[in-house]
Amino acid sequence: MPDNRERIDSSAHARDAIRVSDNDTVAVALRDLKAGEQVSLDGTTITLTSDIPAFHKFALRPHKAGDTLIRFDNVFATASCDVKLGEHIHTHNAQTTLSEKLEYAYEFQAPDPASAPHTGTFQGYKRADGRVGTRNEIWIIPTVGCVANVCEQIARRANETKPDAIDAIIALPHVYGCSQLGDDLGSTRQVLASLINHPNAGGVVLVGLGCENNQAKALLAETTPDKADRITTIIAQDAADEIEDGLAAVQRVIDTASQDTRTTCPLSDLVIGLKCGGSDALSGLTANPLLGDMANIITDNNGGAILTEIPEIFGAEHLLLQRAASKDVFDSIVEMVNRFKDYFEDHNQPIHANPSPGNKAGGITTLEEKSLGAVQKAGRAIITSVRTYGQQAEPKGLTLLEAPGNDAVSSTALAAAGATLILFSTGRGTPLGFPVPTVKVSSNSSLSERKPNWIDYDAGRVLTATDRAEVADDFLAYLLDVASGAPTNNEKNNERSIAIWKRGVTL
To answer: Does the structure show a pLDDT above 50 at 166?
Structure first.
C-alpha cells in the first residue's frame, strides 16, 4: 500500500492536482479546473482537454480503450473508450474490472517498522472484564421494536435528573427482535448482547415486551457475568406503568454506575473503530490515511483497531491479505470476502454495485477506486484476528470485522465489537452518530467549513501541512481528549443510532 505522506507533502504547494504514485496514470484535481488550463505536476506540464471538477481525475497520458487506469499504484478501472492526455476520467469513459470470486495465495508482506512508542494517556473507566470505556453512560435497550418508543420516553425523563457522574442516558431503539427465525434472530441477539456488554455502558436497562421472539432471558444468557450487577430488566406487559418501572430501573443502575471514576489509562487500553462514509476522491489521500496513522500508533502501542465494510475492500483485498498475521487469518479473510461475494450473487446483484451517487459526485469512479482509498484506514497494521458480525473484537491488534458498507449497520457492528471511539471519515458529510463517540473527519476543508456542527476534525489540512506527522500528532491529542470525555458533535447533537443487519425472512 503506498505511503501518501511524501507525495502529499511534496505536491501541496502546487494546489492544482495530486497523484500518489509515480506509476499512477491519473491525477486528482484539488480545485475546479478548466479545459485549456495548464497544470504542473511533478515537473511536467499538462494542458487539460476538458473541464475537471474539484476532486475528479484527469489522464496523465493517453489511453486506448481497454487500457488499465492506475491510482494508488493499483488498477482501479479500464478505459471504456480512447482517452486523451488531460481529459476528465470518470464513469463516462472508465469501467470496473471486478468480477466473481478470485484465487488468492498467502504471501506475507512485512509492514514498515513500527512508529516510536507514544506516551499519550487518556482518562477512562476500567471495567470488571479488563476493558476500558471512554464514557460512563446508561444505555436503555429494547429487546424488540415494539418497545423502542418506550425506551426513548424513559431516556428523556431520566435525563431530567441525571447526576453528573453519568455522562449520558441514551435509548438505542431498533425495529427487530420479533418475526425473526434462526440465524437472523441469532445475529440480532448477538449484536444486542455485545452492546449490553460494552465498556462505555456503566449500566443497562433492558426493556422487553414479553411475547417477542427475542426473549430477555435468552438475550441475557449471552451477556458477560461480569456485568450482571449493572443490568436490570423490565417487561412492559407485566408492568402497571412501564415508564415508571423503567425510571426506577434506571435509578437502580445509576446507583452502581455513579461510583465509577475516570483513571489514567495508556494507549493500549484504547480500541478504535475505523469507518468511512460519503467518501470522495480525497478520502484516500487525506482522511483515510490519517485514520491509518491512528491505527498504526494504537496497534504499535498494543491497543486495538477494528476495520469493517467488507464489500468496500473488493478490489483492494490483496493489500490486506498481504498483512494477515498467519495462514489461518489469511484463510479467514478469504472466506469472509468470498462469502460476501456469494451474498451479492445469491440476491442477483453485481458485486460492484457501488460507489453511491454521492461518491461519484465526489469523484470516485469505481468500487476498486473506493476500496483502494478505504483500506488506507488500516494504515500498515497487521491483521491479527477476524470476527463475524456481532462478535466482540480482540482488544489488541487490528481486527477485520464482518459487516456491510452501510454506515449505520457497519458502525453499529463496530460499537458492538467493542470500539470505544469510532473514527468516521467523510467527504460529503453526514450527521449520523452511534452509541460511542463518533469522530467525523472531513477529507476536504470546505466540508469542515460548511458543516462545523457535523465535522469534528478537518483532515483537509493534510494538503497544506508541511509535515503530515504533525497533523497526526495533533489528531491523536484530540482523540485522547475525546476519550477523556470531550464531547463529539454526534453527542452534542444527540445523534445516537443503531441499525441491525437483517438477513433472513420476516414472519
So the answer is: yes
